[in-house]
Amino acid sequence: MPVVEVTQLRLRGVAPDSPALLQNLSSVRGILKTQSEFYSCIEDPTLIFILGLWPSLEAHQDFLASPRAAEVLGPQEGMLEFRWAVHIALDAMASLPLEAPLVAMTRRQVTDDDLDAYDKAFATEKQAILESSKHKVVHGWRLDAAPGTNEALLITGWETAQAHAAFRARQTARDDHHHIAASALYENLDTNHARNMERSST
């Protein structure tokens, strides 16, 4: 089952628009053939995200456990510090809102008791997002979540971070019972907005 990897990394003494960094990232992409896209965090420019497609979760894990990983990723060690990685099922990179000027990545924690209710509430939330942003919406359950936990990853596309904030404000201001019902069913672990590093550098 194909999966998309979303990895957060912290920059070590290098700017997100550094030609050396982009060359390094694109070189690894070419070797691994993951069709990766690189994003710079708006809220914290010292953070970047790598979104890449793997044939399966096991394929990525096997690579990381292999001697080849040190050879391929070694040149990045001086530039990047690993923070976290999340994998969800995804058929193709084209399913992501990569065409959007900005993407929002939100991690949510949901209890076992709330799973069914969350799924139903999210169906309504997704429709509202599509109507407001006009970009693709990707939502999936984390395949490598800690035992006994349920973590969802939501990836949406927006014109600006302000447009996303305005959408959330409208949902709350109009006392939308679907929005309130959905937000009561999860803990928001993390939300980041980011721009494509290669597109920004052109």
From TrEMBL:
It comes from the Eukaryota. PANTHER family: ABM DOMAIN-CONTAINING PROTEIN (PTHR42052:SF1). This is ABM domain-containing protein.
